[in-house]
Amino acid sequence: MTQGNLYIISAPSGAGKSSLISALLQQQQNNEMMVSISHTTRPPRPGESHGVHYYFVSIEEFESLIKQDLFLEYAKVFGGNYYGTSLPAIEENLAQGIDVFLDIDWQGAQQIRKKVSNVKSIFILPPSLTELEQRLIGRGQDSQEVILTRMSKAIEEISHYNEYDYVIVNDVFEQALADLQAILRSERLTLSHQKKQNQQLIEQLLAK
Ligand code: 5GP
Question: Guanylate kinase-like domain: from which residue to which, for each copy (predicted)?
């Protein structure tokens, strides 16, 4: 079976990354993609649940998982909270031919690139800082103070955009989704992927 592709998707918060990933997953036909569920020490937001959006754990639990070497990467991301990607589920899914998305920040992306070859990374940009701020305010989840911190974190995150293989500007949502789908489609058509996927056909075509 062909190994699935591993993708990193990063963006400043409010750029629409989560909506793009959920739309992508909803439109898939054969469960050929999944998003890895990270561990975090931040408390759940309204509507978020354990094992669906994140594994919500205490700082003690998180540090114990670090000691057990469970994480492929981890970082202190926002408000001093730990976020981390655990290895076992990712490997299992990739081995079954499923594409796995890591919704992680630039620090995590740097760690993964050092450890995993063949990882493709995608950065989502907002159309402007004003629009980003409006989206954060519109979510109604954060206080004015948290929004200010998120905005300065956003600019820090954006400054790493040029470490990524692909960049999408999420101005019109449907267009950004089409761009994301185009990336995945072209990645499935690369020589190395197609060689494995169509091994039998290629052998037949070259048999004489
Ligand atoms: P939020 O608290 O809004 O869910 O996420 C804040 C940031 O943490 C986002 O940029 C998100 O991509 C990042 N993040 C989520 N999970 C992980 C992870 O496992 N590792 C790293 N490094 N960053 C993560």
Answer: 4-185
